[in-house]
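Key idea: predict the complex, not the pieces.
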Amino acid sequence: MRVVVLKSCLQSAIVVLALSGIGHAEERSKGAVPKQVIEDKFNYCQTCHGVAAQGFRGYFIMPRLAGQQPQYIENQLNAFMELRRLNPVMRNVTHGLTHAMIKPLAAHFASLNPPPYGGAPKESVSLGKSIFDTGLPEANVPACSACHGPDGKGQRQIPRLAGQLYWYVIKALGSWDKERGQGSIKDISAIMSPTAHNLTPSQVSAIAAYVSNLR
Amino acid sequence: MASRERTWIMKSIGSIRAALALFFISVGPIFAEEAIPVRNCTFCHGPSAQGFATAPRLAGQRSEYIENQLSGFARHIRDNPYSKLYMWNAAANLSLQTAHDLAAYFSAVPPQPANDGSKDLVASGKEIFELGIPTANVAACIVCHAPSAEGVREIPRLGGLSSSYVKRRLEQWNEGFHGSAGPMPRVARSLSATQIDALASYLSFVDTKSSQP
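Result:
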């Protein structure tokens, strides 16, 4: 136990030392990050993710962060930083982040609650609802609601899906192993891998359409 | 006797001309550009819609973007000085159908890059365009405008626009003028004058061959 704790402390220390070399004049002490720094960083997130963090469909798809589980956001930011989740845009964003900023930033999004972005096709919503509520036993697909909650709001490190952008959910489920769980450390994202594999593209589209409308 | 014949011939020619005129009017315009008032636009935006002086290039621009801008001018939402001076009037009496047709027409004209930026700013402009400046909280333009600067749907193509036009727009958002929609005023507020110059210069040289309307 003690060895594991020491090892992860060492890893964190190395990451912090490594990151502190990338021009972070503000983070000299181990104290809390100044409030203004977090506010400015939050404004930066809003530039792409939307003023109310509702997400935006540009050339790339910036997901909804509003109302997202703080622990999930923290895990993703760490994963981008440590290259366990491969996304060149977000990896670049984390060049301007320190570990100390992550928790206060993640907390900012929890209380936001704009209406869903919308834009999903309507035809497959009922199929999406049935997969969400009861899964596809014959395809080894559990009900999404079992972990993500019947309202899709998630819990702890399990993300909120309610109101997530239709195209983002499709992208996420379609490229799960390509983007997540990279590197030698198998992280918690591996749990979604079998489910992502067992869903057909039209089932993914149906689920995405359904959750994108949830409030 | 001769003068009477001339008069008769002139009368015939006159009536043939009138007949021809009536024929063509009833048949309709021969060239596509005549069916929609393109000439009202190219008067300022250049004969091939590549832009001229203060009027930006319309050639190759995304049609949804053009329609949104025309709507923004008509509703006085886009309020920077040249818009107020010229475009508010130009867009005032456009029907939705005409605006749509104009946008479709211009988006299909192949765009030429302006190539009028400073070459020595291109490298830094490209870096800001592709990576933003995360430590200064400046977002990367590519996430909305595409790595090729061609835009998508209602998000405009920036590649090849005149550097003076891009610079002016970014400055105007910084000064508080309103956009037709979207996050640009907020994005521009994070940019410094040097960064604006670099971006505008870089973009003026970007020549996107792929033209997906």
